[in-house]
Design brief:
134 residues; alpha+beta; five-stranded mixed β-sheet; 5 helices; Ribosomal_uS9; RNA binding
């Protein structure tokens, strides 16, 4: 039996707006790879990095798991939020008791806000063309 088969791989999906993140969680040393690039390189700002690490910090497992993430669509903020949801879901799959710690912080809730579609006969979703009385 190979070493890769011995360690369980947990997969979960996170979404935010049009961003979709597939997260693979394995036991390891805390290495995070996003789209084949190191975590710090893909998300350059500290705010985005903290968004992604928040569920791991909440359950004190920052250096316990290796993460391999494939994310596409959306902007960097939406991608970071999608990754955060995927990590939280993967952690609950690994240990159901962690759900009690993650849920009060809102890590298991998908943000439902989406861009509203443009309507016919209008320049945008809600905006109307300028009205001229005369």
């Amino acid at each position: 039996m190979s070493a890769a088969a011995a360690t369980p791989v947990l997969a979960a999906t996170g979404r935010r707006k049009t961003a979709v993140a597939r997260v693979r969680l394995t036991e390891g040393s805390g290495t995070i790879t996003i789209n084949g690039r190191p975590f710090e390189e893909y998300l350059p700002t500290l705010q985005l990095q903290n968004t992604v690490l928040a569920p791991l910090q909440t359950v004190n497992s920052v250096n316990r798991f290796d993460l391999n993430v494939v994310v596409k669509g959306g902007g960097t903020n939406a991608q970071a939020s999608a990754i955060r949801l995927g990590i939280a879901r993967a952690l609950t799959i690994s240990d159901g008791e962690l759900r009690k710690e993650l849920k009060p912080h809102g890590f298991l809730r998908r943000d439902p806000r989406m861009k509203e579609r443009k309507k016919a006969g209008r320049p945008g979703a809600r905006k109307r063309f300028q009205f001229s009385k005369r």
